[in-house]
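Here is the promised in-class demo. Please do not try to memorize the tokens; focus on the logic of going from shape to residues.
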């Protein structure tokens, strides 16, 4: 049964009756997103799981809620279902104006499964937390106490007096005609409406009542209502309307309170997010303390059962290929399982043949149906003939009040125990690893290959959790990799004990200082090499700049060569004109320049990598540059050469010029 804003008030008594007569309830919910920020890792404890999920999901909105009540029919001797599918959308005024996050993949998924977003926004039922409701009620009581007090009249501005008088005349005509009971005054801004409310109430308080009406398009108009003998006074009607508006804003929170107060068994499938949103949206903000969360949850819902957890244990674990809800239903329809017969009154429930997956009401019904099938299978194994469920039976006791944790289930931490201690598996075989950014999963597997297979959970591009399949190798791993300069390995327990994210940041900084290697993927993707630049050796003579006011040297564009020596190509003769512009003379060659043999750099030996793979260093050839400098002073100065005084220096590009147009440094004095 679909429930929206317009039929919620009329449906509320039916919902209350369904909850009261039910043997158990099943729920499901849809959201605008699942989680933001850092996701849960496979090695997180139940407390970490709760903290990350709570912080990452609280800003998303709960937009659809499914409630299915399973009750026993004594005449037919089988279960019946009353199922309700609620569209939920919190509205402002009088409630808070909510801001929320959306996750594109979640909205796309809902749209692909036929979710009606127009119906959600137009007809969604409002809701709020119990604490917000209490504050609004207190505020409304205080505000209504001021209604009977006389307020100082607002002076009507001169430019608005004529408009007010014209409208008052229309109201007077409405009173005298007595043909209609109501009239509307539109095309008025909020200030004019306030002035009209003041004037009409003062002039015609015995004949009419003035109220504000909100149209479907959210525009506001003044409503003038003719008074009758049996009509209440205006303040009383106004107060009643405000309480009705607050009651509508509380909305679906009433249903959540009914479920909680019934103390019935509540069944869900992978229901941690459903419970978090139910508590956080309808009751109060979720506590940051994990112990307080468990106490709060158990107080609101004393009997919870997660079919995802139930199906992950024997005897179902070995008989189910998958415990995804749709696949779980398909498996439970085949031997050795049987689906129980569950009917419904016309228009009040679902059938498993309806095929409305990911509609919250239908998923709630399927969850309850799967629960009945698994319960019946356990009862047959125990030799019990009764089909009807007994929530306090020993059959269900191992599964009660345990919320399934999907991400950590395979690492011996499968649930949150709301009424006892959580499982605390050892993490001695798990390490936090910081590694070069270029590394892939295969590099990590190769690094740990001497210690057997590993499970890798990446945190980001340079860090991951590493779990050893052979747990007895944990101490050997620390000894073997403690002095490895390419990675930083920290035991999981030590890493988690460090406050916040400071530990990870410190490890990254340390890794940035010590990492001098870079892996480069070859075209064949089979081997990697490390290429590094060898530092230039040999002494260099610092260039001597001309004294002021000579201009700064200008860099001359040159063609680079990969050879060990460089010879300047022939250049055209350039002459300076009186305007300072060079002219090129192709016929006159430049004087030849003496070549200087460079000193060969000797590459430094490099140690082999820690993982035993050899690297090939290819030293780059020595580069030689010639930098030319212009001088404007007429007197020629010789450039001192500290290393080699016999080197010939080009002082002029034009041998016939009277002044030194360009002075060049020798090649051994060049720099990049």
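The designed amino acids, position by position:
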């Amino acid at each position: 049964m679909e429930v929206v804003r317009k039929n919620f008030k009329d449906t509320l008594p039916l919902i209350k009756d369904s909850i009261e007569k039910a043997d158990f309830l099943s729920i499901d919910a849809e959201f605008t997103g699942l989680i933001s920020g850092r996701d849960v890792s496979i090695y997180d404890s139940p407390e970490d799981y709760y903290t990350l999920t709570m912080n990452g999901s609280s800003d998303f909105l709960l937009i659809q809620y499914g409630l299915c009540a399973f009750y026993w029919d004594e005449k037919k001797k089988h279960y019946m279902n009353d199922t309700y599918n609620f569209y939920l959308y919190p509205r402002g005024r009088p409630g808070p104006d909510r801001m929320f996050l959306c996750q594109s993949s979640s909205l796309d998924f809902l749209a692909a499964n036929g979710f009606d977003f127009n119906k959600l926004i137009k007809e969604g039922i409002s809701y709020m937390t119990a604490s917000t409701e209490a504050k609004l009620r207190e505020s409304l009581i205080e505000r209504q106490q001021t209604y009977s007090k006389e307020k100082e009249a607002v002076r009507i501005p001169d430019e608005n007096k004529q408009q007010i008088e014209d409208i008052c005349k229309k109201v007077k005509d409405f009173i005298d005609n007595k043909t209609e009971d109501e009239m509307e005054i539109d095309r008025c801004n909020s200030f004019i409406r306030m002035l009209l409310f003041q004037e009409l109430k003062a002039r015609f308080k015995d004949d009419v009542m003035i109220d504000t009406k909100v149209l479907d398009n959210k525009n506001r108009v003044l409503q003038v209502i003719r008074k009758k003998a049996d009509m209440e006074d205006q303040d009383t009607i106004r107060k009643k309307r405000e309480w009705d508006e607050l009651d509508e804003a509380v909305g679906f929170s009433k249903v959540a309170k009914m479920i909680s107060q019934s103390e019935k068994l509540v069944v869900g499938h992978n229901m941690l997010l459903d419970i978090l949103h139910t508590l956080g949206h309808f009751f109060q903000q979720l506590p940051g303390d994990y112990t307080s969360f468990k106490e709060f949850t158990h107080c609101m819902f004393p009997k919870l059962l997660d079919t995802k957890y139930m199906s992950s244990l024997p005897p179902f674990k070995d008989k189910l290929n998958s415990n995804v809800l749709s696949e779980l239903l398909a498996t439970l329809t085949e031997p050795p399982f049987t689906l129980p017969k569950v009917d419904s009154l016309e228009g009040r429930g679902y059938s498993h043949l309806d095929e409305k997956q990911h509609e919250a009401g239908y998923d709630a019904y399927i969850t309850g149906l799967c629960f009945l099938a698994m319960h019946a299978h356990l009862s047959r194994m125990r030799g019990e003939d009764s089909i009807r469920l007994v929530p306090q039976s020993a059959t269900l006791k191992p599964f009660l009040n345990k919320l399934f944790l999907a991400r950590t289930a395979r690492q011996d931490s499968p649930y949150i125990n709301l009424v006892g201690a959580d499982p605390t598996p050892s993490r001695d075989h798990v390490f936090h690893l910081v590694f070069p950014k270029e590394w892939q999963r295969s590099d990590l597997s190769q690094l740990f290959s001497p210690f057997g297979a590993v499970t890798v959970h990446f945190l980001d591009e340079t860090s991951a959790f590493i779990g050893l399949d052979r747990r007895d190798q944990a101490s050997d791993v620390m000894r073997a990799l403690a002095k490895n300069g390419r990675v930083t390995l920290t035991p999981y327990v030590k890493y988690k004990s460090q406050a916040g994210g400071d530990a990870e940041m410190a490890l990254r900084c340390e890794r940035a200082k010590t990492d001098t290697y870079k892996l480069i993927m070859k075209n064949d993707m089979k081997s990697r090499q490390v290429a590094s630049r060898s530092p230039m050796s040999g002494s260099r003579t610092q260039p001597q700049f001309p004294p002021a006011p000579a201009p700064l040297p200008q860099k001359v564009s040159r063609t680079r060569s990969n050879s060990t020596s460089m010879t300047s190509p022939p250049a055209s003769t350039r002459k300076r004109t009186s305007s300072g512009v060079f002219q090129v003379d192709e016929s006159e060659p430049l004087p030849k320049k003496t070549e200087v043999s460079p000193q060969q750099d000797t590459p430094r030996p490099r140690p082999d990598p820690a993982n035993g793979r050899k690297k090939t260093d290819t030293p780059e050839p020595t580069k030689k540059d010639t930098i030319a400098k212009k001088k404007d002073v007429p007197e020629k100065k010789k450039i001192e050469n500290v290393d080699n005084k016999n080197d010939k220096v080009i002082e002029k590009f034009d041998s016939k010029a009277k002044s030194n147009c360009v002075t060049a440094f020798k090649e051994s004095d060049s720099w990049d």
